[in-house]
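User: My notes are a mess, but here's the protein and 2-acetamido-2-deoxy-beta-D-glucopyranose's SMILES. Can you give me a structure?
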Amino acid sequence: MVTMRNFVTIFFVVFAIYCAIDPFNHSSISKFPNFETHYIDMPPLSSLPKERDHENLLQNSEIKFVNEVQGPESVAFDPQGRGPYTGVADGRVIFWDGTRWNDFAYTSNNRSELCDTKPSLLDYLKNEHICGRPLGLRFHKKTGELYIADAYFGIMKVGPEGGLATSVTNEADGVPLRFTNDLDVDEEGNVYFTDSSTVFQRRNFMQLIVSGEDTGRVLKYNPETKETTTLVRNLQFPNGLSLGKDESFFIFCEGTIGRLRKYWLKGEKAGTSEVVALLHGFPDNIRTNKDGDFWVAIHCHRNIFTHEMAHHTSIRKFFLKLPITVKFQYLLQVGGWPHAVAVKYSEDGKVLKVLEDKQGKVVKAVSEIEEKDGKLWMGSVLMSFIAVYDLA
Ligand SMILES: *[C@@H]1O[C@H](CO)[C@@H](O)[C@H](O)[C@H]1NC(C)=O
Ligand SMILES: *[C@@H]1O[C@H](CO)[C@@H](O)[C@H](O)[C@H]1NC(C)=O
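Assistant: No problem, the inputs look usable. Here's the predicted complex:
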């Protein structure tokens, strides 16, 4: 007689053989024959910040521009305070003039019908390398130029009148930028930015997350010498980056491990970096507010599943061999449930405020938090709207 237990065992053995053979060649790592998983030094769950938002305050956010913006990652206002400007899934940067959305800029000179509106946000991934994918956006306060971290084309910029952006840099030390992610520009026009991986592009973000590989870099572009230099290397998915108010340092996040690091630009410690905080979960962009505090967008709160996966390299590899869609893998990775968190940190890494939506009811996920006039403007690659939270 087949007991339940035998049945489960047989099922798993057959399933494991099936995954190993991959008869239909549709596992999401078949394109990467040398795919390797690396150890992730994930800190224990007990060491995560104790500060929590038990009232789910993020759920009080106002939802704006429903279905008018697809996957708005970064949200920026120009030096005159106009906007927001945001980069969307089809590769455009669009601009809200107070009445309607207008096309502002684009990063690809080869746009075609391939870049047209798609039914679901994940459908855009396939053509991103052709259409471009603007992630981090920043205005240079003096010149009014918009700097764009395009995931595929590197650092680009466009004048205040918009149009086709031009390349600022797309390589460093002879290695092309492969997944440019977030940036900041100082007064002199130096650009500090992250390249999340030199192996995987954004359209293979699932492989990047699961592999735990450490080819990510933090870089600097110097407009005088026109050189791009590496400031920090061997990082696991570096993501958000933001300069301190006095520009003597910047803060960036290490996505895979989920922590904040401070890199000193001036003073005794210049050229060195240190970990200043552990994060509640998987981070995205960082933005400095007028007081010099840092808003860190946490895509999704950490859970037991992601935690266990971090410590078991072979299970992670097996996971990517499962014949399931990226959407489903993503859902499993976030523990089956969206859970956005917005955290405000002091420049020393002290938690100042936490806002959550534990059920992902209103704000499913968050990629960036831009504070302006007492309000938080929140974009996300997974949302078709912008959420606005009133701090008052
Ligand atoms: C599986 O797919 C990859 C590309 O996705 C291809 O290079 C490889 O030859 C395929 N293998 C088989 C056995 O069909
Ligand atoms: C331009 O886009 C087409 C698809 O529309 C693609 O086949 C071609 O490779 C692209 N050219 C360049 C230079 O990227």
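The chain has one domain: 4-390.
User: Great, I'll file this with my notes.
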